[in-house]
Amino acid sequence: MKYFFLSLIALAILVVGVFGFRGDKFSQAPIEVFPDMDNQDKIKAQKPSGFYADGMGSRRPVLGTVPRNADSGVMPIEFGAGRDGYYFTGELEGTFGNGMPEELNLKEEKDSIGLLGRGREMFNVHCAICHGKAGDGKGVVATYMNKSGAPVPTLLDHTQDKSPDGYIYHVISKGKNLMSGYEHNLPVRDRWAIVAYLRALQASAK
Ligand code: HEC
Question: Cα of 175 to ligand 1 centre, how many Å?
Fold first, then answer.
């Protein structure tokens, strides 16, 4: 029994020695036996952080993304909202213009090849479901739309050939009847790339 009390006192002294009395102040961080998620890694807005290479806690928006709550006033310039000039509207002196705008910066052959490649990619993603990969109006959706009395036209016949580049750009941007506009999905440059690719499709269909 004697030893029991002695060891109890020794244990009490040990516990108080290590952990201190309740309410004691320490200069060092307390020993946490059960951390209970008291401390977690997190990033505070506007505060530095060692987690990212640039040392900033706040991140910039991912390149090319558009904030969901953006109204056209803050749409990035590459979508062209509220801007004028041939490049952004397809219009020249009150009518639709023809030719690729200067802003596309097509100096060498490889620039044009790059633009056409991008145009093919975007056409296949956005337009082929209706107009068909070849532009012949035989896309999957067209089979259904044609039955409903709103046919999807081929883009390869003469009337299409003759419509100016600026008009095609305009139809892509604003849409026409049952075809919706792509000005919020496709940056200006991609819309022109599609125009260029469509011309290539038309030329190869001849
Ligand atoms: C949902 C199906 C659908 C998609 C997707 C679609 N179109 Fe159309 N498109 C139509 C229909 C339907 C018309 C006919 C509109 C009319 O004249 O009533 C049309 C018409 C056109 C015309 C002819 C306009 C005219 O006045 O002759 C062009 C050019 C055109 N589309 C290009 C495109 C391009 C480029 C894309 C991809 C960015 C695209 N379309 C995506 C359904 C679609």
Answer: 7
